[in-house]
Design brief:
Layout lengths: L1 H32 L5 H27 L6 H18 L6 H27 L5 H19 L2 E5 L2 E5 L13 E5 L4 E2 L7 H19 L2 H11 L1 H6 L4 H24 L4 E2 L3 H4 L1 H14 L4 H17 L7 H17 L1 H19 L1
Antiparallel strand pairs: 1-2, 1-3, 4-5
Length: 352
């Protein structure tokens, strides 16, 4: 009976989270159609979905798996460039709907594959070492793309790490990836409706995973690795499962990001160290392990810099202060004792 009640409680929580997203989508759509929203706010609707998706993806690794990863900007970069490259190749030969759907699938799968390949050696590490290696992966991906040149002509694809002239294409050839200049001409297929749908899909995947048998095994590994291994849980298998799904969802955010821009470049501001830290701030501010909180925190922190543009130059400073404050509040011994004391007093009052 207790198990059934717990299942109902988890299902109810999942429905509430998804319902919040659906209600927010309906309200914002009505406001946009009524002309109430400014052009700035309309332009932020897709980024809100992008950052909410990647915050949920990172929370799966940090909050549910219990591993600190700073490479999700790299996985987002992989999904963005893979899907953009695919869309550009089939821009004139395939209908927009099926092409974008395939781009979404390809971007997510390739990012998940990178997550699997990176996770096999990296997940043997723990703590700061894991964070450093995943951060290095993100920087390597960004720098490789910045020196990569890909073109296509009647003879097929041409690759170079030198410059576009080294591709040696025929006169009718076209440069698809132009080094640091990135990809130009990606179809603008992203919109608020697609973003909301992908956010709901992300929430369904993550919340169902958390409430499943595999999710309980992943959280057991997070809570006590030795105890989980002693009862027969395959540590490597479940860690790779969570990390790969998280990377795939980060790639999903990258697909939305790439198809929302006319020019896609692998710059530090969008796929670098600051992006990884910003996503981590979303997770910490929303509550580590709290999926609904990640969505709310990402929406708030994306909107605030735009609503308070005079403080935009101090955004990373504010994020850093908030991150330090929340970490101290959550993990400082005196702060934890104070919270426990307050919770105990409140519980005693309720019993009386």
């Amino acid at each position: 009976m207790k198990k059934k009640m717990n299942m109902n409680k988890s299902t109810k929580s999942t429905l509430i989270t998804i319902g919040m997203v659906v209600v927010a989508y309906i309200i914002m759509t009505i406001l946009a159609n009524a002309g109430v929203l400014s052009s700035l706010m309309k332009g932020l609707l897709v980024p809100l979905c992008i950052y909410a998706i990647i915050a949920v993806a990172l929370n799966l690794t940090v909050g549910i798996l219990g591993e600190l990863s700073l490479g999700h900007a790299g996985f987002m970069c992989v999904g963005a460039f893979t899907s953009s490259f695919f869309s550009l190749c089939f821009k004139e030969t395939m209908a927009a709907g099926p092409r974008f759907l395939l781009a979404i699938v390809i971007g997510a799968l390739v990012s998940a594959l990178f997550g699997l390949l990176i996770g096999i050696p990296v997940l043997r590490l723990q703590g700061d070492y894991l964070a450093i290696v995943t951060l290095a992966f993100g920087e390597i991906i960004k720098n490789v793309i910045n020196v990569l040149y890909v073109g296509r002509d009647a003879n097929g694809f041409h690759f170079s790490l030198k410059d576009a002239m080294a591709l040696n294409m025929e006169a009718d050839g076209k440069v698809l990836i132009n080094g640091a200049q990135g990809i130009t001409g990606t179809p603008n297929d992203s919109n608020f409706t697609v973003g909301a749908i992908l956010l709901v899909v992300t929430l369904i995947i993550v919340l169902n995973l958390i409430n499943s048998r595999s999710g309980r095994a992943i959280m057991a590994i997070r809570d006590n690795r030795i105890a989980a291994e002693s009862v027969g849980i395959n540590i490597t298998q479940f860690k790779l499962l969570a990390f790969s799904i998280s990377a795939g969802l980060a790639g999903l955010a990258g697909v939305l990001y790439a198809h929302n821009l006319s020019i896609l470049q692998a710059q530090p501001k969008n796929f670098g160290y600051n992006m990884s830290i910003m996503i981590l701030v979303y997770v910490v501010l929303g509550g580590i392990g709290n999926i609904r909180g990640s969505v709310i925190a990402s929406v708030i922190l994306v909107l605030l810099p735009e609503l308070m543009r005079e403080l935009n130059d101090y955004r990373m400073l504010i994020y850093s202060i908030v991150l330090i404050g929340i970490m101290l509040f959550n993990w400082a011994p005196k702060a934890r004792l104070l919270r426990e004391k307050y919770s105990l007093k409140r519980l005693l009052k309720k019993d009386n």
